[in-house]
Design brief:
two-stranded parallel ribbon; 35% helix; flat; 75 residues; 3 helices; alpha+beta
């Protein structure tokens, strides 16, 4: 399985939790499957964007809604 959105849970505007692709991928791994995660929090994507913009990482602010995925890769 390839999982391009490793987020496991998000919060809907109603406050209810919504389980997303990372949750399914994690369960697949628990059952013995192999998962290739692609995307956040892999810092490669963040570094590529900063480089293409011609900026220094310390001059960039990244905003996300997931500490585990959005913020971890940008640190």
């Amino acid at each position: 399985m390839v999982c391009v959105n490793p987020d496991k849970v998000t919060v809907k505007s109603t406050g209810a939790l919504k389980y997303v692709p990372g949750q399914l991928a994690g369960r697949y791994e628990e059952l013995g499957g192999t998962v290739k995660y692609f995307g956040k929090p892999d810092p490669e994507g963040f570094c590529l964007c900063v480089d293409k913009l011609g900026l220094r990482p310390e001059d960039v602010a990244h905003v996300g809604d997931s500490l585990e995925h959005d913020v971890a890769g940008a640190v």
